[in-house]
């Protein structure tokens, strides 16, 4: 199976060939994979070297001239490092770009903290409500999301990961119910690659499981339609990133919220992504423990 | 096609700047960027109030967004904004702040204020124009010597030089305000990266004009405009 990064490279290559408005800005990451299309379109495939501030500044300048820039690197370099460029060179100028990251929260488990970005989605929340954030859960979700993004001028963040689900749901921009619980059943929302561990964790529980690859804008209408009292969020980035949104959406409804995700502490441990999932309580066993305790804690 | 707008705004500028600052004591020369801006808008830039959205226009990007009084005055002198806007600088209903916002001020290409952001935007603008076959417009970027402290500039200087981005002219207004100076000179940071450079008296309009139009093929161009203390 093609991974998300390859899907991104293949789709972006096709977009560069098809649409003269598309431009790609790189900071060395994935440069060799884009070399062939770079030979065909040297003016629209731009590798600025290991210069992430410049990468976003250039994306902003390209957008000011009417092109549709795609910028790409590891999430920690693309978003964390270049945060003020995203804020000022894109947002403040009133232009958009498609930012496509790899690495996610702990794909780079063996690389350590320097290659991990559990806080990227929270950083976009600090920029206001303009950003669309896509967190695909399967490589086959990448191409349609990227193609849709390329046709607009909107600010869009596409967060790719090596973690993925067995099945693709390309049409899950809104909450898509994958398992329907009984009346009044608690709602469990899984974002992106957290779907499979969430489904495994809730096996045998009377819960509704809904999936989305688009946490921003969050499908608050779908949330209100599906929720009874209990909501569990399972997100592959910082725990609680969507808590404020859910609280706002349910402000006039009595509810309880459990927000699961990556912990804030730098674990200072290597290992593989499965180890990190376990340490953050995001493997099926950990999720099951947390969800059971939450649902059992009030009369459940 | 737009043509160079050769005018002389010098008669109007003192009055316009006074409307902004309310300062009767200081001559326009108290503003370090005034001469560069005047020469650019009077004699160099191919942009008018009617062509602010024309893809073929020259771009002027004020990276150093601080102290924009001279910039606003020049924009008013050339009719980009009404003179009356100058009377309420940074007021609650004003479109003119202490740092310019491109979405509020016609003719302003970028919003700036946080130092070190204009250079990347200028490089991207030059690249975007080139990718669309727009070879006529030039991109002019104005920075301060202290602004060069920001590392983001050096990412852009190295890349623009290495790739021979010859539609770009950077102007550094040098009033020796960088805390640690630039040992060996400002121009050397650029020329070592493949730029051409002219260092001129930042008050001498003929010298500025020659430098601002002195770019050569296949290399980005730097103008260092030296300003002595008043």
Describe it.
The complex is a heterodimer of chains A (300) and B (230). Chain A is α/β, with parallel strands linked by helices and 300 residues long. Chain A has 2 domains: 4-159, Rossmann fold (3-Layer(aba) Sandwich); 176-296, Rossmann fold (3-Layer(aba) Sandwich). Chain A is 36% helix and 19% strand. In chain A, the strands form 2 sheets. Chain A has a 6-stranded parallel beta sheet, with helices on both faces. In chain A, β8, α8 and β9 (208-212) form a beta-alpha-beta unit. In chain A, α3 runs parallel beside α5 and α8 packs across α12. The radius of gyration of chain A is 19 Å and the shape is globular. Chain B has 230 residues and is of the alpha/beta class. Chain B has one domain (13-226): Rossmann fold (3-Layer(aba) Sandwich). Chain B is built from 7 helices and 5 strands. Chain B has helices spanning 13-21, 34-44, 69-77, 118-131, 151-162, 186-191, 205-212, and strands at 59-62, 139-144, 168-174, 196-201, 221-226. In chain B, strands 1-2-3-5-4 form a 5-stranded parallel beta sheet, sandwiched between helices. In chain B, α5 (151-162) links the parallel β2 (139-144) and β3 (168-174). In chain B, α1 (13-21) packs across α3 and α2 runs parallel beside α3. Chain B is globular. The relative contact order of chain B is 0.14. The model of chain B has no long low-confidence stretch (mean pLDDT 94). Chain A binds chain B through residues 20, 23, 25, 43-44, 46, 48-49, 51, 53-54, 56-67, 69, 84-85, 88-89, 92-94, and chain B through 55, 101-103, 109-111, 114, 116-117, 119-132, 134, 151-152, 155-156, 158-159. Chain B: Its cofactor is thiamine diphosphate. Chain B: Belongs to the transketolase family. Chain B: This is Transketolase. Chain B: InterPro entries: THDP-binding, Transketolase_N. Chain B: It comes from Micromonospora parva.
């Amino acid at each position: 199976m093609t991974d998300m990064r390859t899907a991104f490279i293949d789709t972006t290559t096709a977009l560069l060939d098809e649409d003269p408005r598309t431009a790609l800005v790189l900071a060395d990451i994935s440069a060799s994979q884009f070399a062939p299309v770079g030979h065909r379109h040297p003016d629209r495939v731009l590798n600025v070297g290991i210069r992430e501030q410049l990468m976003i500044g250039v994306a902003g300048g390209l957008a000011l001239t009417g092109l549709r820039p795609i910028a790409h690197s590891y999430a920690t370099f693309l978003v964390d490092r270049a945060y003020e460029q995203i804020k000022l060179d894109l947002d403040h100028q009133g232009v958009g770009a498609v930012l496509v990251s790899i690495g996610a929260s702990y794909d780079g488990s063996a690389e350590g903290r320097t290659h991990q970005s559990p806080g990227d989605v929270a950083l976009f929340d600090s920029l206001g409500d303009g950003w669309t954030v896509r967190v695909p859960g399967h490589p086959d979700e990448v191409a349609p999301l990227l193609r849709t993004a390329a046709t607009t001028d909107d600010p869009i963040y596409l967060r790719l990961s090596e973690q993925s689900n067995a099945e693709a749901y390309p049409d899950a921009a809104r909450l898509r119910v994958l398992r329907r619980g009984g009346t009044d059943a608690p709602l469990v929302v899984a974002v992106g690659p957290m779907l499979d561990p969430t489904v495994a964790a809730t096996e045998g529980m009377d819960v509704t499981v809904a999936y989305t690859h688009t946490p921003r804008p969050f499908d608050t209408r779908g949330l209100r339609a599906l929720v009874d009292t209990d909501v569990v969020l399972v997100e592959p980035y910082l725990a609680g990133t969507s808590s404020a949104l859910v609280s706002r959406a349910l402000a006039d409804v009595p509810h309880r919220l459990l927000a699961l995700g990556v912990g804030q502490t730098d674990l200072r441990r290597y290992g593989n992504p499965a180890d990190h999932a376990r340490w953050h309580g995001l493997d099926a066993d950990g999720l099951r423990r947390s969800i059971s305790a939450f649902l059992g804690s009030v009369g459940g | 096609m737009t043509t160079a707008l050769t005018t002389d705004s010098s008669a109007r500028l003192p009055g316009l700047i006074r409307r902004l600052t309310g300062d009767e004591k200081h001559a326009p020369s108290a503003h370090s960027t005034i001469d560069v801006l005047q020469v650019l808008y009077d004699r160099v830039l191919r942009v008018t109030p009617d062509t602010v959205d024309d893809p073929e226009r020259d771009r002027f990007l004020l990276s150093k967004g601080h102290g924009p009084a001279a910039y606003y005055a020049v924009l008013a002198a050339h009719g980009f904004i009404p003179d009356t806007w100058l009377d309420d600088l940074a007021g609650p209903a004003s479109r003119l702040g202490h740092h310019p916002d491109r979405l509020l001020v016609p003719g302003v290409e970028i919003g700036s204020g946080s130092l070190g952001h204009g250079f990347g935007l200028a490089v991207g603008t030059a690249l975007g124009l080139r990718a669309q076959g727009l070879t006529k417009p030039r991109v002019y970027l104005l920075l301060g010597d202290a602004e060069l402290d920001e590392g983001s500039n050096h990412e852009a200087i190295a890349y623009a030089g290495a790739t021979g981005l010859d539609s770009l002219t950077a102007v550094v207004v040098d009033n020796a305000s960088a805390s640690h100076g630039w040992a060996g000179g400002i121009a050397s940071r650029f020329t070592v990266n493949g730029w051409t450079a002219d260092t001129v008296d930042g008050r001498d309009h003929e010298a500025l004009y020659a430098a601002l139009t002195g770019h050569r093929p296949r290399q980005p161009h730097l103008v260092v405009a030296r300003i002595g203390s008043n």
